[in-house]
């Protein structure tokens, strides 16, 4: 009698606050963030099954062959992907699952799961994006400018998402997200008519 | 620079509280309820341009010929319909327009305005619908049972709407409605990307 949980894909420029948004969202409802699988080695402090499912190259290729990934990509000679089974299990339990992934992965998901909800989050301006990336203080000036250039390239793809949320004030962005989820639960395909 | 207003169609069984919902919704935001045109004579207390645009049969047929109606139907030898121009004007001003219309009219609208949002509201149960119709006290027992039979026939058509809202507690139904509208404003087609 559980209503099936939603599959929500969240993308957006690096530094526009997706991580902070997701933390806030999780405080306000029953959302599970999907853990990706990767073939790269764990970095210091990274825990298996928490930050990533760290698996071997053979295991990853096996998953590709078995169509066990909702999306995957290779980056710097390593694979990254979203295992399908866990997502399906959680949704069957009525849990809403959030994937924080890149644009290309998002489009792969939409092809495989028509009912996935694609949300693109944008910063209020390029200057604000630059400010946030500087504030984070984890990247050099050069890397920051590269990230910004890439964000501007990807921005037109936001129009291929279902929703676009401006992340200016965090609280408003979170309320927008929650309104989208509330509305999606009311989509006629998701409502059971039992009389 | 106004964002275009939304066109929202609200349908649902007679007696399930659409009128009360709309009154509540109007208190909480800038919503205009569209006034229908009709060829029937005004009843006592009905005001032209408030309850209906009361127009002649010739004027109505002229509007049909000029494709000036978003939808229309004939009922008991009279025409009823939604004039397109006023709706377009309000939306251009950024106002959200609500149409409270029947199922067939709703589908006509969707054909003409792809971006119309169709919301079907349902009562919690047949017994509750019967109770509400009795409470209203404006119809005979026979009419009430006819209305209920018709509602049950139409209910499967709710699945062809975009959203289904259960009107059990009024406050929740209104919050559902407002969430749908907030989400629809965030649809990528409705968001301007200006950087």
Strand order of the largest sheet of chain A: 2-7-1-8-9
Structural class of chain A: alpha/beta
The chain pair with the largest interface is:
A-B, 30 and 30 residues
What proportion strand of chain A?
15-25%
Task: Tell me the series of helices and strands of chain A, N- to C-terminal.
Answer: EHEEEHEEHEHEHHEH
Overall residue-averaged pLDDT value of chain A: 92
Q: Give the helix proportion of chain A (percent range).
A: 40-55%
Assembly type of the shown chains? homodimer
- Cα-to-Cα separation, first versus last residue of chain A: 15 Å
Taking all Cα atoms into account, the compactness measure Rg of chain A is: 17 Å
Question: What is the count of β-strands of chain A?
Answer: 9
Counting DSSP H or I runs of 4 or more residues, the number of helices of chain A is 7
Report the uncertain regions of chain A.
Answer: none
Shape of chain A: globular
Largest sheet of chain A: 5 strands, parallel
């Amino acid at each position: 009698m559980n209503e099936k949980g939603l599959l929500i894909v969240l993308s957006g420029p690096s530094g526009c606050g997706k991580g902070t948004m997701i933390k806030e969202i999780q405080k306000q409802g029953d959302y599970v963030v999907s853990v990706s699988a990767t073939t790269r080695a764990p970095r210091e402090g990274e825990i298996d099954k928490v930050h990533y499912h760290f698996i071997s190259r053979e295991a990853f290729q096996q998953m590709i062959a078995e169509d066990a990934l909702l999306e995957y990509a290779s980056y710097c000679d390593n694979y990254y992907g979203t295992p399908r089974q866990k997502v399906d299990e959680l949704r069957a339990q009525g849990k809403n699952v959030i994937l924080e992934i890149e644009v290309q992965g998002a489009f792969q998901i939409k092809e495989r799961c028509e009912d996935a909800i694609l949300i693109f989050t944008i910063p209020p301006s390029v200057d604000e994006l630059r400010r946030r990336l500087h504030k984070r203080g984890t990247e050099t000036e050069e890397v920051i400018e590269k990230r910004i250039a890439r964000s501007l390239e990807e921005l037109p793809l936001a129009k291929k998402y279902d929703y676009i949320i401006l992340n200016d004030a965090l609280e408003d962005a979170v309320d927008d997200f929650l309104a989208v989820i509330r509305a999606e639960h009311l989509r006629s395909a998701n409502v059971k008519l039992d009389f």
